[in-house]
Amino acid sequence: MLRLIIGSVTLAAAGYALKEFCEMEGCPWEEQRASSSSTDTTTKKQTTYTYAKKFHKKKKTAYKNGMQAYAMFLEQYKVEDKEIQTDLKLRKQKFPDESVNEEVKTALEKITHMTEVLSYNIQLHFQLLKQQTELKKEDKELMQQYAHSLYALAHLNIFTLYDTFNKSEFLEVMYDAMSLCVGKDSFYVDLGE
User: Fold this and answer.
1) Where on the phi/psi map is residue 26: left (φ > 0), alpha (ψ -120 to 50), or beta?
2) Which of 50, 93, 122, 175 has the greatest number of CB atoms lying within 10 Å of its CB?
């Protein structure tokens, strides 16, 4: 019986590791199947997803860190947020490299940077709240705004159905995120060496 339990746990761990690898790098058997099914490789153009993979990897790290801090905040202060599920996996967006022009590259960099900033703000604000004895209404609202903005930014559809840059939605979500990150009552500047 013990062997069966250990074997099933090992099999589950291996399956989870394989799933994570396939999400990040693509499954090797799919590449073999795709290459064997194409009869004329010289006429068929190879589609690559380098930008999509790098973008997802950077965004995923910041998103997970921010949402973990937000989940701890919700649990510690018994706050309920019905709009965001903090245990959701970040959906992977697949877009070909040929659809990435200079405007899209800049947008991808801005999204990555803003997810990192929002994630850091959530973590920092949560650390500051731990030092207080009581949760204030404005602190709760600020944490929720950070989390909602991070969620919207991380789940933003960069391209429309026809692989065109979704500029209007990008600008709307970025405006909300930037207004949260820039709209501070005070700034700390270290003028030391």
Assistant:
1) left
2) 122
